[in-house]
Write a structure and sequence with these properties.
4-stranded mixed β-sheet; about 20% strand; about 350 residues; 16 strands; Rossmann fold; 2 domains; binds 5-S-methyl-1-O-phosphono-5-thio-D-ribulose; 10 helices; alpha/beta; 7-stranded mixed β-sheet; Four Helix Bundle (Hemerythrin (Met), subunit A)
């Protein structure tokens, strides 16, 4: 396995193509996939070669550019019509992470606002995709710093629990929830991170733990059914997770299993934090009831690798996300600061899609 540097960037624009770390192969293989075409980007998002809300947004932004590049039309209006079709294709990849829709709308806005030739529009789309990527990295670093202020002051060295992967792999780099963990580690406020393995796809054990090991952050993997036991035993000072979509009232969609973790944290009076950029907040949705929940293929449950682990004849239900009600969340940590969910509306709103 070729070992990367400790800085992890899941999406890179390099020599006219997009390079993606293949997250389906980690942690056993570090491989990079080159994407030249919009269809291939759509497939990479669907199959979770690239995953995690902000990373999906960055990938979709580049996907829009790749799609634009494939359009041969020189007439501006026809070009814009065809670009809408590209957007529609990318929108159909994953329904829950709102950053996907947000990034696509940013690219479309650039296209409509750029005067000039079709070639000039295409160039401005690439520029916007790159800005989205750079800004997401800066945003994650700010989330890390604000999160550090929001964490409990005692004990000096905290044991944190996270779920799924809200790390560098899930963003342009650095991470949201894992960004806060990184900042805590840098400031010597972290004793240990507990990573819940996150059935069915195991993003916690495969990806979060991998990122921690790359950087020497002390990490302990637990299976999901061990969390309540650890919280009851006083092993955890705070829980911190990422988000795929946050409604205006602070209800938060994140990886399936997040809700039960929040309930357990409440039962043991352990603070439960959500870390996410403002591009993850969907102010158009009043509550989490309106958030569309992706359902994925049952093979994610009945198979581990190539091995079938369930009897033929059983049925499966595989929602990829659940919604944690705002009242279970102590604070939502964004690039503008950490606020209790009911004060989310006070933060500067990112241009909506
Ligand atoms: O299905 P995934 O792996 O894309 O789900 C990812 C999550 O649920 C993350 O916690 C979320 O996207 C936040 S990433 C910063």
């Amino acid at each position: 396995m070729t070992s990367p540097s400790t800085q992890v960037y899941p999406v890179i624009w390099h020599e006219d193509k997009v390079l993606l770390i293949d997250q389906t192969k980690l942690p056993t293989k570090y491989t990079v996939v080159a994407i030249n075409r919009c269809d291939d980007m759509a497939q990479a998002i669907k199959t979770m070669i690239v995953r995690g809300a902000p990373a999906i947004g960055v990938a979709a932004a580049y996907g829009m550019y790749l799609g634009a590049r494939e359009i041969k039309e020189k007439n501006r209006d026809v070009f814009l019509n065809q670009l809408e079709e590209v957007a529609q294709k990318l929108r159909q990849t994953r329904p829950t992470a709102v950053n996907l829709f947000w990034a696509i709308s940013q690219i479309l806005k650039t296209a409509y606002e750029t005067m000039g030739t079709v070639e000039e529009i295409k160039a401005s789309l690439l520029e916007t995709a790159q800005i989205i990527q750079i800004e997401d990295l800066q945003t994650c670093r700010s989330i890390g710093d604000h999160g550090l202020e929001a964490l409990p002051k005692e004990p000096e060295q905290l044991c944190l629990l996270t779920y799924c992967n809200a790390g560098a792999l899930a963003t342009a780099g650095y991470g949201t929830a894992l960004g806060v963990v990184r900042s805590a580690w840098r400031e010597q406020r972290l004793a240990r991170l507990y990573a819940s393995e996150t059935r069915p796809r195991l993003q916690g054990s495969k990806l979060t733990a991998w990122e921690c090991v790359q950087e020497g952050i002390p990490v302990t993997i637990i299976t999901d059914n061990m969390a309540a036991h650890c919280l009851k035993r006083g092993m955890i000072d705070a829980v911190i997770v990422g988000a795929d979509r946050i409604a205006a009232n602070g209800d938060t969609a994140n990886k399936i299993g997040t809700y039960s973790l929040a309930l357990v944290a409440k039962a043991h009076d352990i603070p439960f934090f959500v870390a996410a950029p403002l591009s993850t907040v969907d102010f158009k949705l009043a509550t989490g009831e309106e958030i569309p929940i992706e359902e994925r293929h049952p093979s994610e449950i009945y198979q581990v690798g190539e091995t079938v682990i369930c009897p033929p004849g059983a049925e499966f239900y595989n929602p990829a996300f659940d919604v944690t009600p705002a009242e279970l969340i102590k604070a939502i940590i964004t690039e503008q600061g950490a606020v209790p969910p009911e004060e989310l509306h006070k933060l500067q709103i990112k241009e909506s899609f």
